[in-house]
Amino acid sequence: MRIRKENDFLSMFDEETGRYLRTGIIRDGKDTGEDPFMSSFPELLDVGIMGHCKHGKSGLCMKAGIECYQDGLHAEMPNMRLQDFKELVGQCRGKTYQFALGGCGDPDQHEAFEEILRLCRDAGIVPNFTTSGFGMTEHIAKLCKKYCGAVAVSWYRSEYTINAIELLKKAKVKTNIHYVLSKNTVAEALQRIKEHSFPKGINAIVFLLHKPVGLGSYANMIRQDNEEFQDLIKYIASEVFGYKVGFDSCTVPALLRHSGKIDPDSLDTCEGARWSAYITPDMKMLPCSFDNQEQKWAVDLRAYSVEEAWNSEVFDDFRNQFRRACPGCPERRRCMGGCPIRSEIVLCGRRETPSPTTTSYHP
Ligand code: SF4
Ligand code: SF4
Question: Distance between CA 229 and CA 235 in Å, rounded?
C-alpha cells in the first residue's frame, strides 16, 4: 500500500488490488468530507509510448467500427524512445501510482515493451494498458501477468478480440473490456448487456464515450436525445452483472442526468490536470490524451520537468475551466462543467453554450 501525504488530504493506492482511496480535506485533524481539487503531482499518467499504429494504415479500427481518436490512419510519429521513458520513470518514482500505457497503436507492440513494464514495476509504478488484442500472444499475456495491474481489450468485435481476452484470462490477468459508445455502437452495447453476451470471466466493462477527435466524427457522436443510450444507463443502474460496469469520467454529465439508481457519490468527474495527465510519444505533457491532435494545452517535457508542467500556467488554464464552469448548477460540485476539450460530449442537458470558457446552464 502506498500513501501520499498532501498538504490537507491523504491518498492511498494498493498496488496489488488497484484499490484507491482519498480522504476529504482534513482540517484540525478532521476529515471535512469536502473533495480536494487536485494533487501536487499527477497520480496517474497516460504515457503515449506508441507514435504510430502498424495496423492503422489498413484501417483495423475503422473496420471494427471504432474511429481512432489518435488518427491511426495518418500518424507517423516514432514510438517513445526508451531513454525518454526512463527519464519519465525517474521523475515519477515515489510520486505517481500508475502509468496507463497508450498512444497511437497497441502498447504491447512497442519494441521495448518488456523493458518498459519492468522499469515501471522497479520504480513502484503499476503499468496498465489498452490493446486492440490484434498482436496478443501467450508470451505477452505472461508479461502482463508478471507486471501489469490490469489490461483492457478494446471491443473490436473480431476474432482477435476474443482470442486476446482468452489469452489474458488464461494467464490470470485482470482483464477488462473497453467499449466505445457511439451512435453506431450503442444498440449493440444494450443488446449484449441485456443478453449477457460479453465474454465470461472478465473483471469489468468500461464504456467510453465517443469523442469527435482524430478520426472520431461528429456524425457518430451520441446526442442528448439518444434513447438507446438512456436505456443503457438505466438498465445498467438497475441490474447486477457477473462483472463490474463502469463509464469514463467524460460520461459523468450524462450519468448525473439519467442517474436513476446510480449512487451519485460513485461518480467522479474529469481528472485531467487535477489528478492525471497525458504524455505524447515526443514528450509533450497535456491535461488529457483527447487534446492529442490540437495540443492546445501542451508543455514540452524536453524543456520542463513533469512537476513544472503540472504547475504551469498552461495546466492552470485548463483547471480554470473546472473552477469557473456553470456557476449555479446544482450538479456543479460533482461535474465541474464536464469536458473542457469537447463541450459537445457534455450530455447533461443543462449546459447552454458550446464554448467551455463561457459556460452557463439552464435548469
Ligand atoms: S450545467 Fe455544467 S455543471 Fe451542471 S451538469 Fe451540466 S456541465 Fe455539469
Ligand atoms: S478532458 Fe474531456 S475527454 Fe479528457 S477525460 Fe476529461 S472529459 Fe474526458
Answer: 10
